[in-house]
Give the backbone structure.
Amino acid sequence: MNLRYNTDRAIVRCDQCPGQPILPTHVEDTDTRRCVRCQGEHRWLSQPHPEDHLCRVCRRECPGCRALTPNGELCRGCKGRCRTCAGPLPERPEYASGISHVEPARRKDHRSRWTQTFFPRSWDWDQCPACQNAARAAEPLRAVLAALPPKLVFACGGGVPPTVVNAIYDELQRHTPAQLAARIERRWWRSWCSRPLTRKAAGHTEGYRPDDVALWLLTPTRCSGRCEDGWHLADRPDRDDEPCTVCRGGRLLVPHRETDDDLAEVKESATAADRTPGEAVAYRPPMAECTGNNGACGLPVRPPHTQCPTCLNWPWCACRRRRYNPEKSACSSCAPQ
């Protein structure tokens, strides 16, 4: 059957629903048992079929551009609103009108065999001019808000929570917008970019929401040395960052879960075979850290020693592989058993 485009359309009906309703598609080979929009391999519809014949993922997509939305309505771009601040977008020319061609004879790179084509920049057309220049804006609040990842802002419902705005105002009294933007970028790409933004509370594990993650990206480091995640940032490009001597380069900033006394006694008496896979991965045996280099070394040491062989300046063994205790004749590998 040959159909004329925009003239004849195939009418697809669902033969499994009462009344055989017409599906919103014109593809004849549509499998009515799957999602009518994506036809995914594992997108089987529940029985009886929902009224829109869509799966859970497609039900949250924008009908215009298939972008993910909180409720499945038109996204801000299709509504003509800025995706960052939801303000009105200015009228923009057609994309095709911005494409320009340079003839081979007029090319400045002396490659006169092909025509050079320039395409307009369109990746920020869904932002208003104020949000496009937010990173260079004179307003400090807008400059910090521009550093928040779009994935996190979308998870917060498309807007920034008031608690995060109040935290930004509080931190701007002690830091510049560039420092706060660097803090957000560092913590996001080091940790939260690959972690779930929502977790339900289960047992002794606390839950959190995307607004909590946004707040954690801004809160100052829990260290009395006023460092940035264990480091004092250099004030000049020709200098290196220095580890904080209070938290030993961030080694003492690892959060520990608070448990009651009974649970602590059970954990101490439990053997390695009694631990769950999650407890086995998170388990760290108690060990002392080296106190050399003004507390910035932090290498594990065995009692009764309080510093590592390098900080104690132990001599090198004849094998030149490791240092040895001067009270012994050689290292543990070369010493006779």
Observations:
- The first strand starts at residue 100 and ends at 102.
